Amino acid sequence: MIELERKPQHGQFFDVTIESVSRKGVGQAKLHVCIGPQRLERTYTVEVRKVLPGELVRIRVEAMRRRVITAAAEEILTPAPERIEPRCKHFGWRDIPGKGCGGCVLQAMDYQGQLNLKRSVVQECMRKAGLDQVEVAQVLPSRSPWYYRNKMEFSFGDDRQRRFALGFFPSGWHREVIALEECFLCSEYVSNLVPRVRQWFEDQGVEYFSSRRDEGFLRVFTVREGKRTGERMAELITTPDEEVKTVDGVKPAAEVVAAFAQALQEICVELGEPLTSLHWTQHVARRGERTRMETHHIAGQPVLHEELHLPRGHVLRFEIHPRAFFQPNTLQAEVLYGEVIRAAGLSEGSGARVLDLYCGTGTIGLCLAPYAAHVTGVELVPEGVENARHNAKLNGLDNVTFFAGDAGEVLAGPLADQQGKFDLVVVDPPRSGLMPQARKHIAALGAPRLVYVSCNPNTLARDLAELMADGHRLVSLQPVDMFPHTAHIENVALLERVSEP
């Protein structure tokens, strides 16, 4: 117990022991104090970035909200056994210039330690939801913990020294940009490309967009890579300004972009791999108007192709547009979807009828199609359904049907005569999980098997408890590490119906 004259203040130092790491990768500790002559006992929750469970850390108070203290780690007094030397020069605390990148919050922990930590996070979420008896399997590791991302977005801005920068925001900070010099999540090709792009725009004197000044042109530079196909797509996102300031005076925006397109293709050839696709997107955000993205195809093919290699030799090919969603880790997506296929218990010629609710762009449904008699997908966003239909046609899958609309309305309308006829229901909801109405739809379907794919163990635990109360039995819960060195963890849960709704 620490005695204080008043409650903890900004800039004060304390020594705390990190008890756990949250699902966002933030270390958590308790600070017990006695305040004032009345010796009021208070316990504060301390949140510290880039520390590991079990470490004794000297912290500096940055902010306090009620009884939650946000703090910076000044010194690791007693390191955890799993602590290793971070590989990337940008890893570290954001008050050090060039450091503080929020992408790899667990990079200072060895990989097995990361897997153990992520499993414990899932276990703790289950415990808090009253599911203490749930057995959480060992986390399926990534095939490649480095260079795995197929899409990276880099922001234009200035760094702490107010120099032109292209890279990432420091963790929890959007007023400056870390000028990227290296990154081990994207390929070496992309790491080498980004500084060259930054240098070209700096030489041309093109300004980045500043929300504080409400002026400037450059917003984001995005690169996608086909890990299975070797294709590469670049996208430059700017404001809708028709004219741009340069070192040679004001020029038409289209002229500046055309010059960049030429320079970019030359840079890519020098790096050993030409671009296969290039787009320019104008981010239109005006007061009183709905924000929209106007994309122009500049060079190469209009889409990027990527493949997923599935169990028993099946290969699916996808066309990815600049605005389309695709799993950012191609090789680990194959592991995730392979686990979905395993949990579903499907084999070719099974004759199973599958319902893929909240199907997005239909990727899971398309992956299940080679093993099922028929797959029906339902998605609220019409653009996602169009994308799913197109990719089904591209792969010659004629046993899939996609409906656009609210799940309840589609089930009560076009699929009203199909209720009770599905052998398997698959759901992959957003981070917020299933809404109460969605759980009612699932219960009403009465399918014998349910596969729940989740990116949020908190909402998964909540929904599992509700589904089990509605007559389901949890058969297995398999975590999959989709994003090494980050705090994210994906889960595949298999449930079976044991009683009627």
> Number of helical segments?
9
Number of separate strands: 25
* Distance, first to last CA: 52 Å
What fraction of residues sit in β-strands? 25-35%
Structural class call reads alpha/beta
How helix-rich are the residues, as a percent range?
Answer: 10-25%
The Cα radius of gyration reads 25 Å
Spans of at least 5 consecutive residues whose pLDDT stays below 50 are: none
Keyword list:
single chain; seven-stranded mixed sheet; alpha/beta; 501 residues; globular
What do you see in this structure?
The protein has 501 residues and is of the alpha/beta class. The chain contains nine helices and 25 strands. The strands form five sheets. Strands 1, 2, 3, 4, 5, 6 and 7 form a seven-stranded mixed β-sheet that branches. Strands 10-9-8-11-12-15-16 form a seven-stranded mixed β-sheet. A seven-stranded mixed β-sheet has the order 21-20-19-22-23-25-24, with helices on both faces. The longest helix is centred in the N-terminal third of the chain and has 18 residues. It is globular and about 65 Å long.
Short description, anyone?
The chain contains nine helices and 25 strands.
Write the layout of secondary structure elements.
Layout: E1 2-4, E2 13-17, E3 20-21, E4 26-35, E5 40-49, E6 56-65, E7 68-78, H1 111-128, E8 151-158, E9 164-168, E10 178-179, H2 188-204, E11 218-225, E12 232-238, E13 243-246, E14 249-252, H3 253-270, E15 277-284, E16 292-300, E17 304-309, E18 315-320, H4 330-344, E19 353-357, H5 363-368, E20 374-379, H6 382-394, E21 400-404, H7 407-412, E22 424-427, H8 436-445, E23 449-454, H9 457-469, E24 472-480, E25 490-497
Parallel strand pairs: 1-4, 5-7, 12-15, 19-20, 19-22, 20-21, 22-23
Antiparallel strand pairs: 2-6, 3-4, 4-5, 6-7, 8-9, 8-11, 9-10, 11-12, 13-14, 15-16, 17-18, 23-25, 24-25
